[in-house]
């Protein structure tokens, strides 16, 4: 038996008990006549003590030679600690060691195994197994486990069945971003790794499994970015015989459950907002509604004066910064520089100070009088002491720019509180979006999303106006889930593929099995998928997705990391060439 | 709202309630003046009734045209059923329909959606989404969900953390059977899909995550067989600071929990058996101990007579068939034919009848007298009325043959009862096994398995004798899990690789990252992996693994199945060739 207790467990009530602990040497302090060792395991830290008076000489010497991260086993007696450590749960006691075994030695670790480490990200990624020993990383992984376990508990209790769908699936001709997997069994043939279980879950609905979920890995062969992994985890859900309302209720329930069980937060309101309103009021389809600063559209009151910049703009739009009148001229200039950065891309920013005496002072006083500026304040809800920030330009661009400014200022003002949670449904997304590159409309969500009732006909005449039965779940300004009511009859699905520019052959080759299935009594159905990686990060606070993945993909240290792709040897390449029916 | 209740929910207490149901038309009986429709959903079947008297004419006509597997929604009143159906939970009531909507039509399904279907396996695999509508398949998937949920509940309660390990990992030079995945990001480089999370879980142990589990997909690029899928699911577990005893206790607990929660069975005994004893007594490393029929070795009492077949054999071995003396000569001849089938491969079988009067009658009476045969009976535990079956030959072969016969007879005698559960630990497996093909020793489990204390030295002198700290969990004659205490220091691991014939370079290339990790304070650790697919099948009874997989790989219907590999189109192949750095 390696241990009778863990290193997080012993308290004053254990004093005089003989115990055995195992763990890692966190640190040791050697005063010559006395040696203290902090012993660490997953559960905490316990102080060990060796001293000249009570410890045999050979053990004393052994203790003095213990290096950081040595793995040891000790037996000893729990004794009261002379100077208590209030920061440690085991701080009332220490262990007078009677037996010391070194289970494994350790090289000096390349960075300190402390909450605040001296290691940079690259070295910590290279030695991820050492990074995991640190509390922040370890606790993140445990937190992720807790979230997934609560997801499963809740959905199981609600009658959802977790069904595993395959990872080796049929590669479809248009799946350009699929990872493909050559099959040894069938020369020249390939599996693909799924980008999501979408079509499988729809087949399960056709199969009558009317409440399905799965926590599944998904794969996209795209470039690595800071917060995008080629493999990621999805909480994938689907229901049959449901309307949008049923789905929103089901996953509102899940979200409330998670916030309660994981964060101890009870959500009182779970508002819904139309996509169009989200764009108009926040310039963003995933608004953070923990704070106001809603947009006011100023075309009516700012155009047709002599200010050409506004007159020429498609949209003039602003919002009020609470207390922003306190900003100095220099601070406002810095804000203007901030919106002009290439990442934001505004050409400039107009502002109007709302003075405490009810007057206004704007950067465009020569074009706008006090009455005009009063209307700006009214439209943006600005009060005395606020600052109205105004941008102008093409609608989509200027909304995105002002949204970036809103989020930046909220961050600076401390309005994005990590312990406050404001979920929101954003609904009625457009069915299609224009793709500049291919110069055609693409499905905004995916081609299985159903249009709003009665809007199918609009597809031909005014495709940009067609709204979908699609919804996103937003939490604190982050999209954590998205879904839709699906098309469930073959004819509508065929029509959709047609509108999206698929030939009949292409549609059949890519999705024929689904359309075939629709012929055998497909029920109405819809669903939702949560990005687990992001959900966990958002629930936890502010860390990046990678902090919650045990072995994330990383650009650095590729040659040593076990998660990196590697060249094949000659034999493997030869075998693979055969599989591919290629000649090398 | 598509339904107020499910089709499995309504009882006599609901009579006179107005309800709405949705589901599939299981069948309809049209008597002209009255139409009964069985409406089915995931939860059950409810009878709908339409009749001339109470149903409007147009609805009556609509009802008469409903085809099998049409998806409909009905509103109506729960009424008492004239002739109750005791076989149906909803058999006391029926629905007098006031509103009928056809949600989707259906082609005639290619096989009947009944518990006993008329569809063969190929057609059911091709239309798997229809097969899933059938109770046996649907219930299997729900059963699998229940098992996995109970696994997670139990392990979470016991402090295990589920950690996701990557699916896109580094391909290792000797990973001949890996699926490889070309990486778009890195031309000429490849990921591999993991055959198991083995090395990752060991890194997690080095990382201090001392109780880990994961229900993970594993991949092997091998030929498809009836009960082997190229992707399969594993319950993967690992613990640090544990001895073998701790691991056996932990997973004995899990097994007891599953049998109790899933099967309602309390296990009283959880015996352990040495591998050597299992082979000696049952000829098999996964004995079914729900029944006896243990082997007796007869060399002492059957050799050195005049029977050359036995004299020349390495092993003479037999067991007693309870009541087997009742077999006719013809039946025994059929048994002899059975063991001579190529799948078993025995050259013949000797038998001795144990008569009720205490005498014996054997097929080799001219070589053995009553005293000899009495010793056979004694060694095999045969009683009056039994039949002693004896085989001879090379030890390993003859044990396997006799084991096959034992299992066959137990099956015929009804001793393999599906509702009786007998778990068993088989322990102290050999560390190595001889591979005829490569003419060298291979790790029986994997190269991370630790030898029994003090046996490392034997590796050089007598490798076949070295036992490992390895154990299998056996349930009813099936291996459902296996694991070992791992090597946790770099030197022993290097020694193992050396003994297994790896050069230092090969070991470094393939497992360098693990051996590097071992330098930084690796704790003693060990673990276990359950094959979930098989575990679920065994707990459920007798079905094959494929019956518990939603979308299993199947040899038939490849061209239409979505789980099949497919050829890439020219563009994809071109892109892939670039990735591979190959010229086509």
Topology:
The structure is a homodimer of 584-residue chains.
Chain A (H helix, E strand, L loop, with lengths): L17 E13 L3 E8 L2 E8 L5 H8 L6 E10 L12 E12 L16 H6 L1 H4 L3 H23 L3 E2 L6 E2 L9 E3 L6 E4 L5 H9 L4 E9 L11 E10 L3 H20 L8 E3 H8 L13 E2 L1 H4 L5 H4 L3 E7 L7 H12 L9 E5 L5 E3 L7 H11 L6 E7 L1 H18 L10 E5 L4 E4 L4 E4 L14 H4 L8 E6 L2 E8 L4 H10 L4 H15 L6 E7 H9 L25 E2 L2 H11 L4
Parallel strand pairs in A: 3-5, 6-10, 12-18
Antiparallel strand pairs in A: 1-2, 1-4, 2-3, 4-5, 7-9, 8-9, 10-11, 11-23, 13-14, 14-17, 15-16, 15-17, 18-21, 19-20, 21-22, 22-23
What does this structure look like?
The structure is a homodimer of 584-residue chains. Residues 556-561 of chain A have low confidence and may be disordered. The longest helix of chain A has 23 residues, at 135-157. The first copy, chain A, folds into 3 domains: 12-104, OB fold (Dihydrolipoamide Acetyltransferase, E2P) (Beta Barrel); 148-163 and 201-270 and 424-529, Bira Bifunctional Protein, Domain 2 (BirA Bifunctional Protein, domain 2, 2-Layer Sandwich), CATH 3.30.930.10; 291-415, GAD-like domain (Gyrase A, domain 2, 2-Layer Sandwich). In chain A, the strands form 5 sheets. In chain A, strands 6-10-11-23-22-21-18-12 form an 8-stranded mixed sheet, sandwiched between helices. In chain A, strands 1-2-3-5-4 form a 5-stranded mixed β-barrel. In chain A, strands 13-14-17-15-16 form a 5-stranded antiparallel sheet. By secondary structure, the first copy, chain A, is of the alpha+beta class. Chains A and B meet through β1, α3, α4, β6 and β7 of A and β1, α3, α4, β6 and β7 of B. β9 (189-192) of chain A pairs antiparallel with β24 of chain B, so a sheet runs across the interface. Chains A, B: GO terms for molecular function: aspartate-tRNA ligase activity; ATP binding; nucleic acid binding. Chains A, B: One of its GO terms (cellular component) is cytoplasm.
């Amino acid at each position: 038996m390696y241990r009778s207790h863990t290193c997080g467990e012993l308290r004053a009530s254990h004093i005089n008990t003989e115990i055995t602990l195992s763990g890692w040497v966190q640190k040791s302090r050697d005063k010559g006549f006395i040696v203290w060792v902090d012993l660490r395991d997953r559960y905490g830290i316990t102080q060990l003590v060796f001293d000249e008076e009570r410890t045999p000489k050979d053990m004393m010497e052994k203790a003095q030679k213990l290096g950081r991260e040595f793995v040891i086993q000790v037996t000893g007696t729990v004794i009261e600690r002379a100077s208590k450590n209030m920061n440690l749960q085991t701080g009332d006691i220490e262990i007078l060691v009677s037996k010391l075994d070194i289970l494994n030695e350790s090289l000096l670790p390349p960075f300190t195994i402390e909450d605040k480490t001296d290691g940079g990200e690259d070295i910590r990624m290279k030695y991820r197994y050492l990074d995991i020993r640190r509390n922040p990383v370890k606790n993140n992984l445990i937190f992720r486990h807790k979230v997934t376990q609560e997801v499963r508990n809740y959905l199981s209790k609600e009658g959802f069945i977790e069904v595993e769908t395959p990872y080796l699936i049929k590669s479809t001709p248009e799946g350009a971003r699929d990872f493909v997997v050559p099959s040894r069994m069938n020369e020249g043939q390939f599996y693909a790794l799924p980008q999501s279980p979408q079509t499988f879950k729809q087949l399960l609905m056709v199969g009558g499994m009317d409440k399905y979920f799965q926590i599944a890995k998904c794969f996209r062969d795209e470039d690595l970015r800071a917060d995008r992994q080629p493999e990621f985890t999805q909480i994938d859900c689907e229901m049959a015989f449901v309307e949008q309302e049923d789905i929103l209720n089901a996953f509102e329930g899940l979200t409330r459950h998670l916030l309660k069980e994981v964060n101890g937060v009870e959500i009182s309101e779970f508002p819904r907002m139309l996509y169009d309103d989200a764009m108009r009021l926040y310039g963003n389809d995933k608004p953070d509604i923990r704070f106001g600063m809603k947009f006011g559209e100023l075309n009516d009151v700012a155009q047709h004066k002599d200010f050409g910049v506004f007159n020429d703009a498609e949209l003039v739009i602003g919002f009020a910064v609470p207390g922003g009148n306190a900003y100095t001229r220099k601070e406002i200039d810095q804000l203007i520089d901030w919106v002009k950065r290439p990442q934001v891309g505004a050409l400039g920013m107009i502002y109007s100070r709302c003075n405490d005496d009810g007057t206004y002072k704007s950067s465009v006083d020569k074009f706008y009088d006090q009455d005009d500026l009063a209307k700006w304040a009214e439209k943006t809800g600005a009060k005395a002491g606020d600052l109205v920030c105004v941008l102008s330009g093409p609608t989509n661009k200027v909304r995105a720019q002002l949204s970036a400014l809103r989020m930046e200022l909220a961050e600076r003002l401390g309005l994005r509180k990590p312990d406050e949670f404001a979920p929101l449904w954003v609904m009625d997304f457009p069915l299609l979006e224009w793709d500049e590159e291919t110069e055609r409309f693409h499905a905004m969500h995916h081609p299985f999303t159903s249009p709003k009732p009665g809007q199918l006909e609009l597809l031909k005449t005014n495709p940009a106006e067609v709204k979908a039965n699609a919804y996103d779940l937003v939490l604190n300004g982050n999209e954590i889930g998205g879904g839709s009511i699906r098309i469930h009859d073959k004819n509508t699905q065929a029509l959709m593929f047609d509108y999206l520019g698929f030939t009949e052959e292409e549609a059949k080759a890519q999705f024929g099995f689904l359309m075939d299935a629709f012929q055998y009594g497909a029920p109405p159905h819809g669903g939702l998928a949560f990005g687990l990686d992001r959900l966990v990060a958002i629930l936890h606070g502010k860390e990046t997705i990678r902090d919650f993945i045990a072995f994330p993909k990383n650009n650095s240290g590729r040659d040593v990391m076990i998660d990196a792709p590697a060249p094949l040897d000659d034999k493997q390449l030869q075998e693979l060439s055969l599989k591919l029916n290629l000649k090398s």
